[in-house]
User: Which sequence fits this backbone?
């Protein structure tokens, strides 16, 4: 066989290999759909749980700040009340009384704020408890779904890895220029860079007719060319035997 013919036979092997590898890849993507969906549900609950935790932490921090301000205000009042006995003027007593009154009003406002934060904390804790249980169930469901497909996924991954090794070996048998063309087309065509031309002179990848003269050249192993329609490298169906097999 000519050098081009050997390349075409190798490309035909690549076409068969890529088709099988693509089927395995499709299975790898489709098989864990239920598990992936369960992961999404668990992740959504985890995000909601984190938000509830943040609400609680924020409320607790605000409560602590208000309680600190209340303590400061009460300390001021005690100091002012202690000074009131030292004051003699009525105006000074009135001014101090106003300060004390203002501080007490501020304390009442802060105490209301503390109560609001306590309510927020309680509500957040209820959400945390509820969401925590739901998340635990969802996480367990996700783990169970992954366990169901774990064995099959490992087997498919091993098969995929085997295809990748075989593909690498086949590509090593091709000239660098052909390999580059093949990889470029495969990247644009869902990983399949080779198409077979059937007995009707039709490209089996895109179902478009291939010009007769080009079909003859490919069939005779004279050129490595692409389908004019889909740009995949084309191989005549008679070239899909082993290199040492007789061609028709």
Assistant:
């Amino acid at each position: 066989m000519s050098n081009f013919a050997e390349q075409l036979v190798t490309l035909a092997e690549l076409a068969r290999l890529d088709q099988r590898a693509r089927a395995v890849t499709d299975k790898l993507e489709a098989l864990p759909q239920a598990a992936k969906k369960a992961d999404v549900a668990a992740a959504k609950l985890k995000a909601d749980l984190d938000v509830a935790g943040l609400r609680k932490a924020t409320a607790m921090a605000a409560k602590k700040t208000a309680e600190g301000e209340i303590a400061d205000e009460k300390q001021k009042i005690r100091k002012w009340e202690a000074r009131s006995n030292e004051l003699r003027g009525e105006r000074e007593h009135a001014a101090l009384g106003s300060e004390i009154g203002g501080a007490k009003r501020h304390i009442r406002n802060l105490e209301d704020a503390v109560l609001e934060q306590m309510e927020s904390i309680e509500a957040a804790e209820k959400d945390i408890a509820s969401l925590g249980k739901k998340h635990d169930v969802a996480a367990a469901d996700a783990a169970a779904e992954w366990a169901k497909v774990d064995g099959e996924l490992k087997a498919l991954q091993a098969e995929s890895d085997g295809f990748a090794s075989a593909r690498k070996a086949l590509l090593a048998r091709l000239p660098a220029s052909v390999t580059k063309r093949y990889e470029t087309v495969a990247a644009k065509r869902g990983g399949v860079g080779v198409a077979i031309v059937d007995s009707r002179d039709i490209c089996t990848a895109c179902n478009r007719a291939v010009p007769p003269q080009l079909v003859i050249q490919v069939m005779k192993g004279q050129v490595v060319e692409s389908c004019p329609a889909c740009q995949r490298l084309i191989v005549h169906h008679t070239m899909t035997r082993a290199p040492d097999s007789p061609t028709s």
